[in-house]
Amino acid sequence: MNIPEKVKILYKEYTVEEQENLHDGGKELYGQIHYLSEKIMLNTNSSDKQKEATFLHEIIHGLDEMYCIGLKEKQVEKLGTALYILLQDNPKMFGENL
Questions:
Q1: Sign of the dihedral through C-alpha 62, 68, 73, 79
Q2: In CATH, what class is 6-89?
Q3: β-pairing, 31-34 with 39-43?
């Protein structure tokens, strides 16, 4: 999977950045989405596979926010994992760039 520098979700264009020591309070995070500043942050210390899975997870949060779906965190986790595995198992589904 190619993680782009920017991803568009409805009318917002999120910049994708890596950051060390990504935390929410005392808990270390794999990633985080900032709706107002339109940024998706990925933990620099994660493996490439983890960054890819986290990127999809944060995109789902973005879709949930923009379309007022109302997903709970556990639903975002499961859907993110399911989509990640689907894309890994079917790399030609959307073209050569996945």
A1: negative
A2: alpha beta
A3: antiparallel
Helix (H) or strand (E) run with residue 89 in it = helix 73-89
Alpha-carbon distance 31 to 12, whole Å?
A: 18
Element (H, E) at 82: helix 73-89
* Beta carbons within 8 Å of 60's beta carbon, 6+ residues apart: 71, 76, 79, 80, 83
Q: What is the pLDDT along the chain (98 residues), one digit of tens a residue?
A: 889 999 999 999 999 999 998 988 888 999 999 999 999 999 999 999 999 999 999 999 999 999 999 999 999 999 999 999 999 999 888 776 54
How many residues belong to the chain?
98
